[in-house]
Amino acid sequence: MKAHAVVRLNFSTEKQLQVVMQALKPETQTSSSSRSKVEMTTENQNLVLTFMASDTSALRAAMNSYLRLINVAMNLKKF
After folding, report:
1. Cβ-Cβ contacts under 8 Å for 48 (sequence gap 6 or more)
2. Residue 52 main-chain phi, psi, to 5 deg
3. What's 31's DSSP letter?
4. Which of 4, 26, 36, 39 is deepest in the core (most CB within 10 A)?
5. What own/partner pairs with CB < 8 Å and gap ≥ 24 does 37-43 have?
């Protein structure tokens, strides 16, 4: 993979982190594109997303998709 990025998101509660992880889990298990891959890990109350892609356009598309899903999960679930 030629392009990569790491995004660390800090959540104020463990519950928030778990809700977002559960929302993203199906997405990380099956890749919608052969051009990109995403790995999800946690560090304390941080969600760490590692994006790897064949080019910058695929990287940007993957990052946008995941960040939008996180936004939706945070807005739907009131903490």
Report:
1. 6, 7, 8, 40, 41, 42
2. -130, 130
3. -
4. 36
5. 37/1, 38/62, 38/66, 42/17, 43/8
